[in-house]
Amino acid sequence: MKKILAVDDSASMRQMVGFTLKKAGFDVTEARDGSEALSIAKQQGFDAVISDVNMPIMDGITLIRELRNLPNYKFTPLLMLTTESGLEKKTEGKAAGATGWIVKPFNPEQLLAVLKKVIR
Asked: Taking Cα atoms as reference points, which of 96, 56, 59 lies closest to residue 78?
């Protein structure tokens, strides 16, 4: 079973993402912000990380930079799931190492389709 780390400061968004992924057969771990996600990611491996951009303590782009510095996450798909659709943020995300960008509100089929494309 593929393991996904879902990171969002919104409990309802984490539940929605978690529900969608669990229903599709993924093992999902949730984190409330980038800092919590980073500490979880250092303790266990994930097949993909889905993160919001705007969060307290550590934002999603900083999280992606930090994850890319860890040997186990050099090639892990890191997806941004965010309300940010501006080119500047997307460029910043890509530069940090984001694999893909999904704009909220997302539809479950779209999220699963993107995940299936990037997970081996």
From this structure: 96
For position 60, which CATH number holds? Answer: 3.40.50.2300
pLDDT of residue 84: 80
pLDDT digits (tens, 9 = 90+) for 88-105: 989 999 999 999 999 988
First vs last Cα of the chain: how many Å apart?
12
64 within 8 A of 51, measured Cβ to Cβ: yes
Report how far apart, in Å, the C-alpha atoms of 97 and of each of 13, 16, 20, 118 are. 23, 25, 25, 14
Does residue 120 form part of some domain? no
Number of domain units in the chain: 1
Residue 82 lies in a domain: yes
Q: What is the pTM of this model?
A: 0.95
Domain that holds residue 69: 3-115
pLDDT at 69: 97
* Amino acid at position 113, single letter: A
3 state SS of 28: strand
Over the chain, what is the mean pLDDT? 94
